[in-house]
From TrEMBL:
Keyword Cell membrane assigned: no
Enzyme class: hydrolase
Subcellular location per the Swiss-Prot or TrEMBL entry: Membrane
Species for this entry: Acidithiobacillus caldus
GO BP: any one term: proteolysis
Recorded GO CC terms: membrane
Name the record gives this protein: Zinc metalloprotease
Broad class of the protein's primary localization: membrane
Lipid bilayer topology: Multi-pass membrane protein
Residues covered by the PDZ domain: 195-279
Keyword Kinase listed: no
CDD domains associated with the record: cpPDZ_EcRseP-like, S2P-M50_PDZ_RseP-like
């Protein structure tokens, strides 16, 4: 079922993104008076096709769902067409109009991202409050003197509502190699500022695990027991749901992650847990079990489950339609800028290219977000749509960005590039695109092979 769900989520996402992208080209081409011969979702052998009449557009669903295209009359050489058809040929249009047709596909992807993010804002995604729970030694968070219990209020003046907001702000600052000004509320209620430099980070710093490995920060999850497994060490020690663990062997515990790390570090050992139960402090002795983790390393376990988060640590903000559209536009612009900056930093070697994902990685993310609910899936669609829009705007022949460059050159010089030059440039573009796809597949395979 997990595999089927992943495939379904991937097919829906890719199909929708291609449909929206190609629809942008299709409708603007029609508006410019160009005859569209075929509108295809996918490449290769047609599985389904429909055409109202021989003079109308043929709509095709093809076998390979990793792209699509709009075939227009006269894309290669409209000058050889009969005069009646020549007026509806693509290459007979002025370059400014062809520029708009090429631009329409990526623009449609950005519009989809705005609408998807607006949907997220209307539904609202519950998020963790930006309260620090763990501060790893030697991480940048420790260097900024952050401590468990600090609530991050703003990053460089930008208000932070959730832990995900904090992660994205810090990631964007890392890509831009900025100095950070953090506004925080300390555990005792004082408002303070912290400074942090994200300059000169290693190329492999920016990635999905940036918060844990580079910042050394984890969100606050209270060390409160939610359930106790039957016949477990915790049950034999008399632990109960609602117990708040205060210390392990005399060392204070600040968060659930802190508690889990302490217990896992002592396989088959006797520990003293100081806890609070209904306002009364108690001490319980527990002997951990000896188990092996996924990597075959020994770790301790006592058989407890974390309690549900209290309401003050869950942030859910819902917006009305107008506010949601404004949020969608801001978020789309922000993520587009971050995507372009990351691409630039990859080219300069300041960000690791291992962040590039191929179809396998995209499919995994699609399945995970789909299983999490509508709002997370919409956020995923928005992010992928932005990535597709930015990718297609790159000045690579065969992509929309390459066509934009050709049209811009023609507008500047007053004449089109020679056909031989365009053909050679497109061959180079195909090679570059194949190299990029191969590298993305390589990254996907490496992720799958990681233990």
């Amino acid at each position: 079922m997990g595999l089927l769900l992943t495939l379904l989520a991937f097919v829906i996402a890719i199909g929708l993104l291609i449909l929206v992208h190609e629809s942008g080209h299709f409708w603007v081409a029609r508006a410019m008076g160009v005859q569209v011969l075929r509108f295809s979702i996918g490449f290769g052998k047609p599985l389904l096709r429909w055409q109202r009449s021989p003079e109308d557009t043929e709509y095709v669903l093809a076998a390979i769902p990793l792209g699509g295209y709009v075939k227009m009359l006269g894309e290669q050489d409209g000058s050889t067409l009969p005069p009646a058809q020549r007026a509806r040929a693509y290459d007979q249009l002025p370059p400014a109009r062809r520029f708009l047709i090429a631009l329409a596909g990526p623009a449609a992807n950005f519009v989809l991202a705005v609408v998807a993010y607006a949907g997220v804002a209307i539904i609202g995604i519950p998020g963790l409050a930006p309260v620090v729970g763990t501060v790893a030694p030697h991480g940048l968070g420790q260097r900024a003197q952050l401590v468990p219990g600090d609530r991050i209020l703003a990053v460089n003046g930008h208000a932070v509502s959730t832990w995900e907001d904090l992660r994205m702000d810090l990631l964007a600052a890392a890509v831009g190699s900025e100095r950070l000004q953090l506004r925080i509320r300390s555990p005792d209620g004082r408002l303070e500022s912290r400074e942090l430099s994200l300059q000169k980070l290693p190329p492999d710093s920016v990635g999905p695990d940036f918060m844990e490995k580079v910042m050394g920060l984890g969100p606050y999850l209270p060390p409160v027991v939610g359930a106790v497994q039957a016949d477990s060490p915790a049950a034999m020690a008399g632990l109960q749901p609602g117990d708040r663990i205060l210390a392990v062997d005399g060392r204070p515990v600040y968060s659930w992650q802190d508690l889990a790390r302490r217990i896992e570090s002592y396989p088959h050992q006797r520990l003293l847990l100081r806890l609070e139960r209904k306002g009364v402090t108690q001490v319980r002795a527990v002997t951990t079990e000896y188990v092996l983790d996924a990597k075959g390393q020994p770790q301790g376990r006592i058989g407890i489950v974390m309690a549900p988060l209290p309401a003050d640590l869950i942030v859910r903000k819902e917006r009305g339609p107008l506010a949601a559209m404004a949020y969608g536009a801001r978020q789309t612009f922000r993520m587009s800028v971050l995507t372009v900056e990351m691409l630039g930093q990859m080219i300069s070697g300041r960000v690791s290219p291992s962040n590039i994902s191929g179809p396998i990685g995209i499919a995994e993310a699609a399945g995970q977000s789909f299983a999490a609910g509508l709002a997370p899936y919409l956020a995923f669609l928005a992010l992928i749509s932005i990535s597709l829009g930015v990718l297609n705007l790159l000045p690579i022949p065969i992509l929309d960005g390459g066509h934009l460059v050709f049209c811009a050159v023609e507008m500047a010089t007053g004449r089109p590039l020679p056909a031989a030059v365009v053909q050679k440039a497109q061959m180079i573009g195909i090679v570059l695109l194949l190299m990029l796809m191969s590298f993305a597949f390589y990254n996907d395979i490496l992720r799958l092979l990681k233990p």
